[in-house]
Amino acid sequence: MDDDFGADAALLEAMASADTAPPPRPKVTQPTPQRLDKAPPTSALSGSKPGVTQPTPQALAKPSGGSSILVSPRQRGNPVLTALKSIPWEYSDIPADYVLGLTTCALFLSLKYHRLHPEYIYTRIRNLQGKYNLRIVLTMVDIPNHEDPLRELSKTSLVNGVTLLLCWSAAEAARYLELYKAYENAAFTAIKGQQASTYADRLTDFVTVPRSLNKSDAIALVANFGSLRNAINAEQEALGMISGWGGTKVKRWVTAVEEPFRVKKTAKRGVRRDESTVGGGDRTDVLHEARPLARVPLREMSTTGAAKGAASTPAAKQYAVAGDVSDSENEEEAMMAAAMEESRRMAEDAQRKSQGEHGKNGEEASGSGLTDGVAAALAKLRDGS
């Protein structure tokens, strides 16, 4: 039996060694938590996965008003909508008739409708207060007598801070709406003038101020005379010898550089003059000496007025500069000087009038005395005869 199953001493010994109990498993112990005063070194974390970092919140861009014009349902059937072709539009529940951007809106008004319902536009403007920075009243001029309504609307636009735009057709009104929407996000540099930065550019801008003078003429002018000063003081014959400079250009250049600055400035501020003079002559030289009243020192006012009063009568030609003087002290000084001059002139007139009356009385007295003497002589002749 033992031989059939192959049981021998070696097998039994191996089985006996296999039946021994396995060694007990070691006890698992949790590590003691420790407080870290500073972050662990990077070398300790090099083998571990990096921690998850939260993304930094970003400010969202302000939503745009879209690429389409928002139209109020009140404008349904308006022929202006059929003329809007270059920019799409859509109906929306808005307080204005048209929204052309985040800060721009428009109200449509027909003068024919305004004549029947004058209170309509005032109610619509009142409802828009504080909602848009730019409020436009797009007015359709469709009546012949439009002067009075437009004058009234102009005053209303100034009081309520709205912009009044006039149009004479639906196509023109639609074009205004399309332009405002197209230039919604346009930069101000599109309408900002470019200022010259170099001396050559500034020199070219100065020379090309007179009409018909271009950049080539400016270069030729400076190249021939060497400097702008020599070009300004040059004679007309020398200017005519420049290539490309004809008689018209020479005349306009000479007129521009020889025109008096003072006369132009005074004329722009408004010069009023009386054409009547004592001798009937033209005193144009006074115009070149005209100065604003506030710029004349107070100590010179009386002497200047006395000298002019001795040379001419009050009927002489008068010049007055109608300019606004911002300096209050100069205005007060000028008013005081004018008051002193007026009082002095009135005193001279009164003195002159009194002297004239005395002379007339003396002549009357002498005339009456002569008449009495002649009468006495005639009486003696009668008695002697």
Automatic annotation (TrEMBL):
Domain ERCC1-like central: 68-181
Keywords attached to this entry: DNA damage, DNA repair, DNA-binding, Nucleus
Cellular compartment(s): Nucleus
One GO cellular component, as annotated: nucleotide-excision repair factor 1 complex
Start-end of Polar residues biased regions: 43-57
Basic and acidic residues: compositionally biased ranges: 341-363
GO biological process: double-strand break repair; mitotic recombination; UV-damage excision repair
Compositional bias per record (Low complexity), positions renumbered to this chain: 7-20
GO molecular function: damaged DNA binding; single-stranded DNA binding
Region (Disordered): 1-73, 321-385
Recorded family membership: Belongs to the ERCC1/RAD10/SWI10 family.
NCBIfam families the record matches: rad10
Record protein name field: DNA repair protein rad10
Species of the source: Emericellopsis atlantica
Higher taxonomy: Eukaryota, Fungi, Dikarya, Ascomycota, Pezizomycotina
